[in-house]
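User: Fold this; tokens only.

Assistant: Input:
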Amino acid sequence: MTTGDMGQSEASGSTLLRALASGRATLLLGQRHSPGLLDSLKRDIAAITDQPDSDDLVRLLSAVRDDSSLEGLRRAFEIHPVAPELVEVAENPWSYVLTSAVDPQVHEAFQRPGSSGRQLRVMFAGHAGTLARSGSTTLTLLRLFGALEERDPTYRPPTSDLELRKQTRLDLPLVLSELPRLIGPGGHLAVVGVGSDDWLDVETLALSCGDLPEGSVHWFSSHEQPIPTDELQSLFGDRLRLYTGSLASEFAVASTDSERAALDQARTQLLHPAGRQMTIRRGEESAVVAFSPDEWRRLSQIAVVLDDDVVQPPPLGEEEERQAFRDFLYRVQRIPDWAGVARGFLFEREAALSLLERVERELAAPRSVHATDAADLDDVSRRSSRLPILIQGAPASGKSRLLHWLAYQLRLRDHVCGLRLADERARLVRTGRARLLCARRQDAGILRGC
């Protein structure tokens, strides 16, 4: 990149940052949003379906026909944590997000910051009557080619060349033709993680951007299977601004202190608009622990903590509740849909009440894992609330749903409940965030019950 090009890139990055801070930036996320993830998923699918390794994702997916292979595929996803690069992208206040990716990491990354601010609304190309705009309380995520975690085959990715051609030539142009209206006057489009092997038709995208002003398409080149620079420039012309670094690194280089401060303020106001509070009971006494927006943001990076808002979901109309129930049933919930749990969408398992009674009994009188003498050694499991309670069952038998129900019921009873996010980024910051939670809990006098 020449000195002139570098100066133009810095100015463009600053322009995008200002658009993002003012809520006028749309994100188009490609299949190569996280380093190594797509290739690793292809290898996993090949192993699960007993196929040779292949770069043809459609051919690999064509073998995922029965529930057992689909369940194996879902479990394979769980060993791939959300990459820090994707989290950094998701933590920005985008006005709208479109993605050609089909992995569940996308949903989890955007649901994580959204759980602390805007609600995530997921839509599917070909099944959305209109591209509903995001708002101050909702972020819309449009999946262009479906999602592998969906249980309904209608919303899963194409499994044949014919299905893929139908979606790329019929459904995709209809969606992309709405891009100028979606982006709006003065808006900008950021393209992240689109490689040459992406299902997204780049030429169709370029035609859809034909009426956008100069410098309004910001392309962050994928380091895996990158699209040649001259090809992109010939398609997008002067509307294109190319970057070789990641979104976060380009912002760090191109922006001023005041611009970064404006973006941080937008993140705080939109993604984390208010503080949170938890009512905590200890015996007959209860106390309210308040978290500032910044504290809640830091805490939500490593855990989904159930606050008082969980037990009071916003009311829905009849049609909205029907759609919410459908989403609750069909979507894999690595991060639970607590609003759905609160609305009673989970049925009560046979073991639920006895498990709740056991956990409440243990929480009421915490005891040590250490036996007082040799005679107590055989009774440790019955006298200690410090040992874990293990839930055993066959795959897809409802273990996770049971724990979701249990966590919600405990929160109703003013106990502190959280879902730990076990990924690499969380591991690096877990110690500091855990200290924050325990410090706030100590203020309420319940640290001993952690």
